[in-house]
Amino acid sequence: MTSGQDIIGIVSRRTGIDLGIVEQVADNLTQSGAWPDDPNRALTFLLLALSANAEPRSAASVAKHHWQLESDSGKPLGQMIEDILHSFLEQQRTDFSAIAYRAAFEIYDTTTPKAVLRIPCVNRAAEITYGGDEEAWKDRTVRRSNFLTGKTLFDICADINLQGRETYVY
Fold first, then answer.
1. Which of helix, strand or coil describes residue 14?
2. Pairwise CA distance, residues 45 & 26, whole Å
3. Domain span holding position 14
4. Is pTM, for the whole model, over 0.70?
5. Total domain count for the chain?
């Protein structure tokens, strides 16, 4: 059984973000009622808040806004990340999980939340933009961005599975 504290430690180790910051962000998500009962959603909220450089006091709001960003097809960014986490946690051997492993989300630190999913293809990378159809990197409000790679998501899930995934509640 993997506890919330174990998950926080795993996220800190795999992302390279200081454990104290990860704990503060997780505390804000919990205290604000934004830490959902669904473990994949809770982990997704945590990763989105951290990837967007959210201040601990605004982590819940930032995570929710980023989760709701939609692609042109209408699929929310958070749902895509949850689908990837689910495939890795369930150790699925599918085309989706193979592609997800090589993909990367670029989460932009902007006044308006934006993200781009890049999927490597034979001659170029396919891109799915979340939060508007304009190219996010052309937005003048971009201060910086962080990558959340498929490999990082895979490694987090592998560590969770190694510790025993029956439940993880913060």
1. helix
2. 9
3. 4-163
4. yes
5. 1
